[in-house]
Write a structure and sequence with these properties.
The complex is a heterodimer of chains A (145) and B (134). By secondary structure, chain A is of the alpha/beta class. Chain A has helices spanning 5-9, 23-31, 63-75, 87-91, 122-144, and strands spanning 12-17, 44-45, 54-58, 81-85, 113-115. Chain A has a five-stranded parallel beta sheet with strand order 2-1-3-4-5, with helices on both faces. In chain A, α2 crosses α5. Chain A starts with a helix and ends with a helix. The model of chain A has no long low-confidence stretch (mean pLDDT 86). Chain B has four helices and five strands. In chain B, a hairpin with a 4-residue loop joins β2 (82-85) and β3 (90-94). The termini of chain B are far apart. The model of chain B has no long low-confidence stretch (mean pLDDT 88). The chains are: A alpha/beta (145), B alpha+beta (134). Chains A and B meet through α4, β5 and α5 of A and α2 of B.
């Protein structure tokens, strides 16, 4: 896996709601507002997973969304990063042991960065992106050496 | 005479600072790893995030010594984030499961649980030591 310089500089994000309560989605929209302005880092939402570098998943994976989340993940071109925003995606949160859940997100697709919080503050999400870029740089260094 | 109320506004906006909060840096540094190392060495500094409001509910803080192991927090937790350890008669809090509702803080008879204003918790490992409060 070789990362192109453009991948390094600006991450395009595709957002999937896999059964979230919409709280995290609202915080993601707040993150993209001029108050925090992640577009100065080149981060922006795109409309298709085929254009995206980062998959932003919110919510626990419901049984209906399991195949859709998998399909979106497979449509993305490698190299790709998966960020899980919110408590539900990491452990189930308030929906733990619910009858219609197919487990937290890491039982469906591999997750790279977790952002805890219910819902996380916009800065927490930006900090998660920083962690994701740091991980990419580390992987790139491992590939080169 | 034509009144131009927008002219003073435009002039004022020209010299105003942008409303954007430049967290963690104004622009993307050439290397994030290098930037984080420089921050830990004290050469660079992270722009602070927007200040949290009073009584902000961030990561939970547990005072192990004053806890009496009454399990009321476990009963009241809506997300089942608190686990009882019978050997030590103390609790373990999983921050990834926590929904930051602070009901356990209100119900604790000894006041052993508090919410800090710490919210930058993103990690690559959800079983990180930082995300388990004991």
């Amino acid at each position: 896996m070789r990362l192109s310089p453009s991948f390094n500089r600006s991450l395009w994000v595709f957002h999937v709601n896999s059964g979230s309560c919409n709280g995290c989605d609202i915080e993601i929209v707040a993150t993209l507002c001029p108050r925090y302005d992640p577009e100065r880092f080149g981060i922006k939402l795109v409309g298709s997973p085929r254009h995206a570098d980062v998959l932003l998943v919110t919510g626990p994976v419901t049984r209906q969304m399991r195949d859709r989340v998998k399909r979106v993940y497979e449509q993305m071109a490698a190299p790709k990063v998966v960020m899980c925003v919110g408590a539900c995606g990491q452990s189930g949160g308030v929906f733990y042991e619910s009858y219609n859940l197919d487990g937290p997100i890491d039982q469906v697709i591999p997750v790279d960065v977790y952002v805890p919080g219910c819902a996380p503050r916009p800065e927490a999400i930006i900090y998660g992106v920083v962690q994701a870029i740091a991980k990419l740089e580390r992987l790139e260094k491992e590939v080169k050496s | 005479m034509i009144r131009l109320p927008s002219v003073p506004m435009v002039l004022r906006q020209l010299f105003k600072k942008p409303a954007t909060n430049f967290f963690p840096a104004k622009n993307l540094p050439p290397s994030i790893t290098g930037f984080l190392e420089a921050v830990s060495e004290g050469k660079a500094s992270i722009n602070p995030p927007v200040p949290t409001p009073d009584k902000y509910r961030g990561k939970i803080v547990y005072d192990r010594d004053s806890c009496i192991g009454c399990k009321i927090c476990i009963r009241v937790c809506p997300a089942n984030a608190i686990e009882f350890i019978p050997d030590t008669k103390r609790v373990r809090i999983w921050v990834t499961q926590c929904i930051f509702c602070a009901q356990c803080n209100d119900v604790c008879p000894k006041g052993s649980l508090h919410m800090s204003s710490d919210f930058l918790l993103a990690t690559e490992d959800r079983f990180n030591e930082n995300l388990i409060v004991e």
